[in-house]
Every structure is written in C-alpha cells, then in structure tokens.
Design a protein that fits this description.
GO molecular function, one term: peptide-methionine (R)-S-oxide reductase activity
Strand order of the largest sheet: 3-4-8-7-6-5
Distance between the termini: 27 Å
Structural class: mainly beta
CATH architecture: Beta Complex
CATH superfamily: Peptide methionine sulfoxide reductase
Shape: globular
Largest sheet: 6 strands, antiparallel
CATH topology: Metal Binding Protein, Guanine Nucleotide Exchange Factor, Chain A
Catalytic activity: L-methionyl-[protein] + [thioredoxin]-disulfide + H2O = L-methionyl-(R)-S-oxide-[protein] + [thioredoxin]-dithiol
Pfam families: SelR
Protein name: peptide-methionine (R)-S-oxide reductase
Bound molecules: zinc ion
Cofactor: Zn(2+)
Order of helices and strands: HHEEEEEEEEE
Length: 136
C-alpha cells in the first residue's frame, strides 16, 4: 500500500493536475459556484482526490448556497483533520484529509443552518471524487 504521507512534493505534482495541486497541496480555494459538486444531490460517497480515502457522504451534504459543496459532518470523525488557520487575517478551521494531509477546505460552526450539527464543512469540489453508490 502507498503511504501517502511519504509522497514528495515533486511526486504530487506528477500525480495531480496543476489546479488539483494548487488546492490540495497548497491550500488553494477554487472559485465559488463553479465546482463540479456544488449542487450535486447524487447519492454516493465522496473520496479524497489525492489518495482515494472515503471522506464525505451524500447523506450529510446540504444546500448551503455558499458556492461550494457543504456537509454537516464527515463520513467518520477520524477521516479528516481539523486545525487552526490564521491566513487571510482571520481565524478559520482548515479541514485536511487524515490519510494524506491534503487540503480539503474549511469548517464553520454556528451559522444557523438547519442541520443536526450546525457545522458547515465547506469543501472544494476539486479535492473530491464522487462515486455513485447506495449510502446506508
Ligand atoms: Zn487524502
């Protein structure tokens, strides 16, 4: 099995497209409302584009109208890492893939969305790959 934590920067550049690399490995953000999965309601599981680990499910995806795919919870709590991010002069919480350390997006709390957690995992479409399949 590949240990994705050992992949070098040069290897990531080969494995990913330029835009995928910018978002996943350089914590970039794709433009709002243009991502492949922003409004997707297809039943299935979203995996990390970089390493294939299953991260989010359609059952936790909701309409946030923020311009990016939004989930109120990850598939499992240990599949993502959350850490403080002070870029852009404010405190946000960055969300990363626990398996490969790639940047996924940010999570915001207490915005008043009518979801079970009142969390919004705001995730770049380009960081994800959707596999259509039944979700329990
Ligand atoms: Zn990953």
């Amino acid at each position: 099995m590949t240990d994705f934590k050992l992949i070098t920067d040069a290897q990531w550049r080969e494995r990913l497209s330029a835009e995928e690399y910018r978002v996943l490995r350089q914590a970039g953000t794709e433009a709002p409302h243009v991502g492949e999965y922003t409004d997707t309601t297809t039943e299935g599981v979203y995996s990390c584009k970089a390493c294939g680990t299953e991260l989010f499910r359609s059952t936790e995806k909701f309409e946030s109208h923020c311009g990016w795919p939004s989930f109120f919870s990850p598939k499992d709590t240990d599949t993502v890492i959350e850490r403080d991010d002070y870029s852009l002069g404010m405190k946000r919480t960055e969300v990363l893939c626990a398996s490969c350390g790639s940047h996924l997006g940010h999570v915001f709390a207490g915005e008043g969305y009518n979801t079970p957690t009142d969390l919004r995992y705001c995730i770049n479409s380009i960081s994800l790959s959707l596999e259509e399949k039944p979700v329990e």
